[in-house]
Amino acid sequence: MTAVIESEEHKALRSAVSALGRRYGRDYITRTIAEGRHPTELWAEAGKLGYLGVNLPEEYGGGGGGIGELSIVLEELGAAGSPLLMLVVSPAICGTVISRFGTEEQKRAWLPGLADGTRTMAFGITEPDAGSNSHRITTTARRDGADWLLTGRKIYVSGVDQADATLIVGRTADARTGSLKPCLFIVPRDTEGFARHPIDMELQAAEKQFELVLDDLRLPAEALVGDEDAGLLQLFAGLNPERIMTAAFAIGMGRHALGKAIEYARDRTVWKVPIGAHQAIAHPLAQAHIDLELARLMMQKAAHLYDGGDDIGAGEAANMAKYAAAEACVKAVDQAVHTLGGAGLTREYGLASLITASRVARIAPVSREMILNYVSHQTLGLPKSY
Predict the structure, then answer these.
(1) DSSP string across 249-260
(2) What is the C-alpha to C-alpha distance for residues 315 and 244, in angstroms, rounded to an integer?
C-alpha cells in the first residue's frame, strides 16, 4: 500500500529545501530573467547541499534516494518562488537514464557532476513533425564503422546553452518505419555538426528553449546509452520521472501563487473586514488548496511506484499526477491573480507572469489531451481514435 504520510526524513528534506528557496525567492528568479542569465548561484548551492542529486546512486556522488525525494526538492523551491526547471531535465531524466542503463564509464563520467551540479545535461526528444507522437521521430542514427552518424532536428530543448551535453532520442536506420525503437545518445555540446538556435519565446524564464540541427554528427560507439534494441523501456525510464517532476513544478508554482493570495486576503480590507472573510474569496482559495493537495498525493503515489520499480504502474500514475497538478496550478494562479484584482497584474506581486508560466505544465512534456487519451484506452480500455 502506498504510504501517504511523509517520513521524518522527507519532512526534514522538505523543510531544509524550503529554507534554501526562501533565501533566494521569486525576486531572485525575476532578476536573473531580467539580466538574461541562469540561476547559477541557487543551482550551485543546491548542488553543494546535495539536493540536485538526491535521486542518484550514492556510489556516484548522489543521495541514494529516488524521484520521490527529487520531487520534494523541486516542489519546495517552486513554492518559495525559485523553481529550477533544469531539475526536471538534468538529474531526473538524464541522470535516471544513465544510472539505469548507462555503462560503468558513462556513470563515472556523468553522474557525479550531475549530482553536485557542476555538470548539466539537456534532453532532446520533440521534433517539428513529431510532437506528441513520438513514433514519428525521424532523427536517425546509422553506423559508420565503429562510430555512429546522427542526423535530424529537435525543438523545444531546454537549457542547451548551459548544458555540457544533450541526451538525444533517435532511432536506428533499420527502424525508421514501424514501431518506435528509440536509441539514446550523449552528444557533447562541442560536437562538430551540433548546431543550436534559440527559439523566441514570449514565456519569460531563466531557461531558454532551442532548436537543434544535427547534421551527420559523428559520435563514438560509447555515446550510445544502453542497448540500441531495448525498445521503449529506456525511453520511459526518463519520461515517467519527467511527468512526476513536472507535477512537482506545477504544485510548487500553485502553492507559491496561493500563498501570495492568502497573505493578501488576510490583510486587504475593503468592507470593514479583510476580504478573506468573504466566502466568495475564501472558498475558491480553499478549493485551490484542496486541488493542489490531491495532486500531490497522486504525485507521491507515482514516485512511490516508480522508485519501487513498477514502471507500468508508475506510467499511469505519473500521467494522472501531471494532469492533476497542471490543472490545479492553472486554477490556483488564476484565482490568486483574481483575488488581488489590479494588484495581481503588477510587478510588485509577481503573479502576472505566472499566468503564462502555469500553462507550461498543461502543454509539456505531454498535453493534457494526450493524457486523457492515455487514460481512455490504457486504463479504461476504450478504443483509440488515432
Answers:
(1) HHHHHHHHHHHH
(2) 10
Backbone angles phi, psi at 246, to 5 degrees: -65, -40
**Element holding 189 (H helix, E strand):** none
> What pLDDT score was predicted for residue 228?
79
Neighbours of 59 (CB within 10 A): 12
| Distance of alpha carbon 170 from alpha carbon 28, whole angstroms | 37
Strand blocks (E) in 191-338: 194-198, 209-219, 224-225, 269-271, 273-274
Please compute the mean of the pLDDT values over residues 227-234 and round it to a whole number.
75
Q: In angstroms, rounded to a whole number, what is the distance separating the alpha carbons of residues 3 and 75?
A: 19
Distance (Å, rounded) from C-alpha 212 to C-alpha 195? 6
Q: Is 169 helix (H, G, I), strand (E, B) or coil?
A: strand
Helix (H, G, I), strand (E, B) or coil at 271: strand
User: Does a cis peptide bond (omega within 30 degrees of 0) precede residue 365?
Assistant: yes
Kindly compute the dihedral angle of the four CA atoms of residues 326, 330, 335, 336, in this order, to the nearest 10 degrees.
Answer: 90
Distance CA 84, CA 326 (A): 17
- Reported as a pLDDT band with limits 50, 70 and 90, residue 230 is low
Kindly indicate the confidence band of residue 135, based on its pLDDT and cuts at 50, 70 and 90: low
> Which residues lie below 8 Å from residue 134, measured CB to CB, with a gap of 6+?
125, 169, 180, 182, 235
Identify residue 63 by its one-letter amino acid code: G
At 51 the three-state DSSP class reads coil
CA angle 237, 191, 139 (to 5 degrees): 50
Element holding 161 (H helix, E strand): none
- For the chain, what is the largest distance between any 2 Cα atoms, rounded to a whole number of angstroms? 80
Rounded distance, CA 170 to CA 180, Å? Answer: 9
CB 202 within 8 A of CB 356: yes
Position 204 scores a pLDDT of 86
Which three cell numbers mark 371? 493524457
Dihedral of alpha carbons 260, 261, 266, 270, sign: positive
Look up residue 39 and give its three cell numbers: 540561476
Q: Which three cell numbers stand for residue 368?
A: 493534457
